[in-house]
Amino acid sequence: MPSMQAMQQYVLPNALSFAEVDGVVIAQINTEQAQAEISLQGGQVLSWIPKGAEPVIWMSEEAQPTVGKAMRGGVPVCWPWFGPHERKADFPAHGFARVADWACKGSQLLDDGSVSLLLELVCDGGSKWWPYATLLQVEFRIGTKLEINLSSRNLSDRAFVISEALHTYFQISDIEQVSVSGLEGVSYHDKVTEAEVQTHAGEIRFASETDRVYVNSPATCVIHDPGLKRKIVIEKSGSDSTVVWNPWFTKAERMGDLGAEGWRKMLCVESANAFDNVVTVQPQQSHSLSVVYSLL
Ligand code: TA6
After folding, report:
1. Do you find a cis peptide bond into 80, omega within 30 degrees of 0?
2. I want to staple 145 with a disulfide (CB 3.0 to 4.6 A). Which of 133, 265, 275, 294 is the partner?
C-alpha cells in the first residue's frame, strides 16, 4: 500500500487530496466542477458527483474500504480477464487488477478545470495469475465529465490475450423506470438464459435479472432515466463489447452486499472486450479502452 507521505507530492491544493481509510488509500477530488473518490486499491472509482447533480456512480450503502476486496459499486477494473477465468476455477473472478495496489504516477489540474490522475500497475511476469510482463495504466479525468482510459502495454516477448471491462455501476432512480438505447440490432450472449446468441430489437428495459454481453459494437449507449430527469451518456473507444447487468431481487439477496433495495438503484453498463471481442496484444504493443461519461 502506498504511504500517505509518498502521496503528498500528488496533492493539488483545492482540488485533490488523499485519505487512508482502513488501510486503503483514497484520492479525493473536490473542485468547482465535481466531487469524486478513487481508491488506489484496484484503481476503482468509488464516486463521481458533478456539481449540482445526483451521484452518477452507484456505491452500495454497505460497502466499506477493505484491504484485498473490491467494493460493491463504483467502477471496478476487470482485467486481464472478464468473468470467471476460462480454465482456472480458483483464479479470482474478473481478474486481479480490481484488488491490486496501484501506484500513483501523476496528477494535474488541467486548463479546463478538470483533474487528471494517473495510476499504474506493473506486472513483472512472475505471477501464476499472469505470466506476462505488463504495464497497466489508468488515467482519470474528473470534471463535468468523467473520462477513464485503461491501457495495457505488453512488455514481454510473447503476445498475450486479454478480456477486460470497466464494470461501471450507474446510479438510477428505479430499474423498472429506466431504459438503455444504443444497442438496437446488436447481438448478445445472455448469461442468465445461456441461450444462443440473440439480437436485440429496441431499447432495453428491465423486468427481471439481466446479464447480457453485447458484442461487436463500439456504440455509444444512453441510460434514459425519467425518474431523475436525466440521461447518462456512455461513449467509448477501444471497446467492442457492452455488458448490461442488473441482478434483480433474488440474485441481489444471494449476493447480500447491495444494501436494502440497492438492486433497484443501480444498473451496470460496462464498456468491455469479452467473449467474441477478446484482445491480442503483441510484444511491445499497447491496447487502450476508454470511456467518457456525461449527463444530458
Ligand atoms: O458484469 C456482470 C457480472 O459478470 C455478473 O455476472 C455478476 O457476476 C457481476 O459481474 C458481479 O461480479 P462480482 O465478481 O463483482 O460479484
Report:
1. yes
2. 294
Give the percent of the chain with pLDDT over 90.
96
Find the CATH number of the domain harbouring 163: 2.70.98.10
Cα dist from 179 to 31, 75, 102, 146, 268, whole Å: 31, 20, 35, 21, 12
Out of 62, 72, 245, 273, mutate this one to test ligand 1's pocket (max ligand atoms within 8 Å of CB): namely: 245
pLDDT over 80 (residue 132)? yes
What is the span of the domain harbouring residue 92?
A: 4-295
Q: Are 40 and 120 in contact (CB under 8 A)?
A: no
| Predicted TM-score of the model (pTM) | 0.98
* Residue 191 alpha carbon, nearest atom of ligand 1: 6
Number of domains in the chain: 1
> Is 200 an annotated catalytic residue?
no
Catalytic residue check, 189: no
Only one residue has cell 440521461, namely 231
Say if ligand 1 is within 6 A of residue 211 CB: yes
Q: Residue 200: what pLDDT?
A: 82
Give the pLDDT confidence of 205-232 residue by residue, as tens digits. Answer: 999 999 999 999 999 999 999 999 999 9
Q: Is the CB of 69 under 6 A from ligand 1?
A: no
- CA–CA separation, 167 and 71 (whole Å): 12
pLDDT average, residue stretch 272-282:
98
Residues constituting the chain: 296
Q: What is the mean pLDDT of residues 83-91?
A: 96
User: Which is catalytic among the residues 94, 139, 167, 235?
Assistant: 167
